[in-house]
Known about the structure:
It is a single chain. The chain contains six helices and seven strands. By secondary structure, it is α/β, with parallel strands linked by helices. The strands form two sheets. Strands 5-4-3-6-7 form a five-stranded mixed β-sheet. A two-stranded antiparallel ribbon has the order 1-2. The chain is elongated and about 75 Å long. The protein has one domain (about 30-165): 3-Layer(aba) Sandwich (Glutaredoxin). The model is unreliable at about 175-184 (pLDDT under 50). It has helices spanning about 5-25, 75-85, 100-110, 125-130, 155-165, 175-180, and strands at about 45, 50-55, 65-70, 90-95, 115-120, 135-140, 145-150.
Amino acid sequence: MQAKKFIPLAAFAVLAGLLFRGLSIDPTELPVARLGQPFPDFAQPELRSGRQISVSALVERPALVNVWATWCYSCRVEHPYLLNLAEQGVPIYGLNYKDEPIKAREWLAQLGDPYQLNVVDVEGSVGLDLGVYGAPETYVLDAVGHIAHRHVGVLDEAVFQRDFSRWFPAVASPAAAAGSEGGQ
């Protein structure tokens, strides 16, 4: 009979433990359903040309696939870094996720366009097949077009050097570039 008094306390302890575990999950380390698998096939319009494209249009490897949208504030934050990567020769494909193509074209005209092409995904079907949680997300396609890595959140210099640089060794970190210039 005395044990019944402790049932609410035990239930509270279990719930508190589950809540604490949930708060400690890092959203940038969410599981990648398609890691090691080919990029999902699709048939969608390309943002600039309007022509139907498929996964075969993502031809240059390795490459980045960046999920972005005009409604995404963090996408605006990472955009200058994507322009920088494109200038350094990193091939970047865009997946314009659940967005209005007119707004997306205006956004790129205003801020610059780092993408070799952009898949229009108004309904989010390509994103769903890919396992997208939201924007921004950036994927690495390896030498054979398989998904080698995914990053959820803003892509910046630190993230690129830590998680992406092995696929793009020609893109040196600022410290490495400064060191090589000093030795000349």
